[in-house]
Structure formats: C-alpha cells, structure tokens
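Q: Got a minute? One more chain.
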Amino acid sequence: MHHLDQAGQALAPPGRAAETGHHSRPQHAAEARESVRVFLDGLSPAVAARTAQHFLLLVSELVSNALRHAGAVSGLRLRATASTLTVEVCDPSPERPAPRTPRLDGTTGGFGWPMIRELAESLTVRAEPDGGKTVTAVLAR
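A: Always. Here it is, folded:
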C-alpha cells in the first residue's frame, strides 16, 4: 500500500524506488488525455517523446473503450517508476475486452484493442469485487 503526500503523489515505502501516481475519473477521452499531459509533464527525468505519444494513445484508447462499451470510467490511475509507465482503467462492466474484426467500410470500430495489445509491454484484465473490471497496461519508460 502506498501513502500519498499532500500533493497526492505516492510515497515509496522505505527501501523501494519512488513511484509517482495520479488518480481521476474522466468523463471524456479528452479529459483523460489532459490528465496524461499533466502527469507526463511532471515526471523527472522526462519521458522520450515517442514513449509519451504511445502512453497518451494507450490511455486514450482504454478510456474510449470503457466509455463506449461499459458506459463509464469508474477510475483512471497513472503511475510511473524509473522503468515503467502504467495505466489502469476501471469500468463498471464485467465483460472482458474482445477483439473485433476492424470495420473497413467507413464506420468505426475494431482497431483499438489490437493497437493496445501491440503498444503495451504487458496487458491484464482483472475482475473487481463490485462487478466491474480493471484493465492495466504497462509501457517501458
């Protein structure tokens, strides 16, 4: 368990590497993207531009998927360690993400989950006691 300082940043337990975190409940993907920008701007050392773009894309897609398929985001957590960036998106649906055949007829859909799987170094889906789920994606820093 991490304790938070006055600014809401995670304090590392003795003997462990410091971890920086951010928690929110975005109502729109644009809100989540703004949270990512603020979060990344606060990291030191700074994240490489390509890594920042990939992280922003991961968060945006995961939040968009939760809004589209589950109807809401019940939590967004962004964390950074010296070697990783992690996003956790919680939503109220117990349904696990499933790949769909991408639509090539001009309508949308089917591209996000394969892209998320390609970008993330690790990807997990965990059922929550409240009946929802948490999708966690980790990217190398």
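A: The first strand starts at residue 3 and ends at 4.
Q: Perfect, thanks.
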